[in-house]
Amino acid sequence: MIKNIRLKHFKSFEDSSVLGLSRVNLFAGKNGRGKSSVIQSLLLLAQSFDKDRGISGLDLNGPFVSLGSFDDLNRRDGKSSSFSISFKTDDEIDNDIFCEFIKDPTDSRKAKVKELTVDGVSKMETVASTNVMSAEDGTPILLENGEFILGETSEKRVGTTSDIVGFGQFQNVTFISADRKGGVDYIKQDATWSREKGVGIHGEYVMNMLEAASEEQRAEVNKWFRLILDGGAVMTERNEEREEIYMYIDPAGTRNGFKPSNVGFGYSYILSILVSIVMSHNGSKLFIENPEAHLHPSAQAKLVEVMVELAKEKNIQLFIESHSDHVLHGLQIAVMDNKIGQTDFSVFFFSFKDGESNLSDVKQLEISPSGHIRRPPVGFCDQAEMDLSKLIGL
Questions:
Q1: Fold of 1-123+160-170+342-394
Q2: Is there a contact between 289 and 176 (Cβ–Cβ < 8 Å)?
């Protein structure tokens, strides 16, 4: 499990301070206050490791997030030409990791490792090289005998990282974007798809995953599908001749399926979440944006209940970005009912620092054993309360 994270000079953060993470983490606050930035920092790391768990820099545009250039991520206050991501894990060794990044001079769409320390020990190596010396205008210096002048230079490069235990926390990561596909009736079979790709960040591979699932996994998906939506079933069918996979959804659960385009979007939107969590590996990390999208409040509450149960059962760490009171209350009730412990749930409230219109501030809120938020800040899920007060004339 990732136990904490800290960002410096990253996007809208000057210094996020240390954010203590838990089994289930909820990121709340108004739009544009930094919620996605924290999630993106972890996804950047996840998409930058090679198959041997090595890392030489950040791939700013990859399978999880595409964030542009280094200058788009480095805080534009002129105070630093680098940004850092540091985190701790629950591994016994190699669990305290600090990564500092600078612009890659050869590719502005990547970030180069400037410093990497693990448990306080630098993993950087000094590499010497022989280069042709150049004049101020960049042209090589040539001697009268036709030979170039050579010079010794050295630079710090990141050494071997594949043996760093803490980096293993990023091996099984799934990201489900708020921009999910809904109402897709069929897809062409994709020979390049593999289970490692999961459902895709937009849910574009959910049919592939359902087709690859075992009978037990499909049955479990349908069990939770029925519970959350008060009935319903989902089925897939492969057409080998046309090389297509079709999906059918039956809101009544009678196995008489309809095309997804002919039922509510909530049915399609929830599938990528359920399939991902049911088919996740032990110790996986699941990042979900707006799980409440297109769902009735009662379905939102039941979805939270299912996510909490499966996260605990399958040892999954959840990172949830949401604007829904029902998602928050569902997690609070899970604590109250002892379905997760008080220390298994963290809530973070994002806002701007006082007097700063573009500098993010994040507070980790205190949760009582009964699931209540102690001393909630102004602006934290209080709009419904304000509206009701106005309606009843208070």
A1: Rossmann fold (3.40.50)
A2: yes
